[in-house]
Amino acid sequence: MNNVRVTIEGQVGFITLTRPEKKNALDRVTADELAQSLFALSEGPVRVVAITGEGADFCAGADLSALEEMLDAPRQQHIDDAKALGHVFHTIRRMEKPVVAVVRGRAFAGGAGLATACDIVLAHEEARFAYPEVTIGFVPAMVMTMLRRSVGEKIAFDLVSTGRIVKADEAKAIGLVSRVVADGGFNEVSNGILNQLALAPPSALAATKTLFYKLDTLGFLEGISAGIVANADARATPAFREGVLRFTSRRKDQQ
Questions:
Q1: Contact 22, 58 (CB under 8 A)
Q2: In sequence order, which residues have a C-beta less than 8 Å from that of residue 107 and are 6 or more positions away?
Q3: Catalytically annotated residue among 21, 125, 133, 222
Q4: Do residues 54 and 96 make contact, with C-beta atoms less than 8 angstroms apart?
Q5: What is the DSSP annotation of 208-254?
Q6: 183, HSE (Cβ side, Cα atoms, 13 Å)
Q7: CA distances from residue 206 to 15, 42, 94, 117 in whole angstroms, order as listed
Q8: Distance from CA of residue 106 to its chain's centroid?
Q9: Residue 133 is a catalytic residue
Q10: pLDDT in tens, 128-155
Q11: Sites in the chain below the pLDDT cut of 50
Q12: What is the model's pTM?
């Protein structure tokens, strides 16, 4: 792969965007490589996937040079190009393993969309987020599906209609970011969170993520019913049995 690097550290798989000279901008090749990497890690032994960027920025958005070359391309070519990034978002959502965006620097436009698509966003205290597509006559089209779910309608429309830059603390306050991590311990704290996630039984993580997003399509009573089934299924797993016995044994020892 030319634009993406995959490494594995313990139970964590890292997907790193490797175009720092382009601020890790997204083009068709990068989108395809992201999808391939996500698929490979979804089938592999790792328990958590982290997406990060090489250099100062996470991802500054679409590669405008690549888009310039496509200005006169047929409509179907533009649809196919957009589908490549949409496939990345869909792959993240349907993966059973948690996918974490580890964000330094700028996450703008498609880069902000990539972070928003992840299950958890860990942001460096100096990270910045923005959806500035409208400022160049473009539309933050696919990301709006996820952004509205993350921050609500009013804030989401403010972000996509003004393209304003959001600092890490505000991003956390509005629900765009899961946690903000100080500069001094960013790598250590981020890796600690990733490793903590990896300690959870894979069956429990998979069931939790699957039900979490399934609830998007269900009404209240349907959601409770789906939760009942997931609850009962979880009780049948070895991980649940081991967890309960470990907990009750510890309590007995303390009595």
A1: no
A2: 57, 58, 59, 101, 114, 115, 127, 128, 129, 130
A3: 133
A4: no
A5: HHHHHHHGGG--HHHHHHHHHHHHHHHHTSHHHHHHHHHHHHHHHHH
A6: 4
A7: 20, 11, 10, 17
A8: 15
A9: yes
A10: 999 999 998 888 888 999 999 999 999 9
A11: none
A12: 0.91
